[in-house]
Amino acid sequence: MPKLYKVRTHGEMLARPDRIVGYDDVTIHWFREGRTEPAYPYTWMVPGWEDMALSLDPQEHNPIYARKLAAYVDQLFTQEEALALREYFISTRRVNVEVEEIEIPLTNFEIPFRLIPPEPQAGEEYGFIQLATGPNRPLPFAVTGYFDMEYQTAYERYQMAAVKSLMVSSGLTLMDESKPDNDLQQLCDKLNSLRLALMRLAQSLNQINRNTHADGKE
What we know:
Radius of gyration: 21 Å
Order of helices and strands: EEHHEHEEEHH
Largest sheet: 6 strands, antiparallel
Helix content: 25-40%
Shape: flat
């Protein structure tokens, strides 16, 4: 049975020249990018993948959810890739390298890192780092790192992105502080719009959780 892996580095030091700040003891989650074909067939990796085929009736199946599952599988490393990345970090960085084997078939699914929009669309204090790749580089495949100084999981950051997106789509903006006569009705309208936006977000996240739990029980 094929194996898939996560790779993390601990104890990184990052500089943010755009903000004249830096971070110490950072954990970076590295993920594979640029796959044109899955490393292994999704039917091997994802229980019930046949029932999630994107060509099925969208009224009965969730093609968006299936794409998220595929994106999560694609960001994981094969054993050969994980070992190559580990050796690269050992030879080039003074950090601790963690390689975690993922149980196959997958029973737990996470939000793919690439679904998180760039800063500040999902808040602040997070970002992406790309490793240089190419014919003359140590790594022949594309790798990107994700770090977050505020949230522990990509799911939490994804929630923040969804909330901010819903606020924008609902027309929610900050009150104009240049006008001292705060309109109470305007404030109430904005709060009600936020309530409705959060209800839609909760429904969407509940659907993701139900699908994930259903997959894990199969």
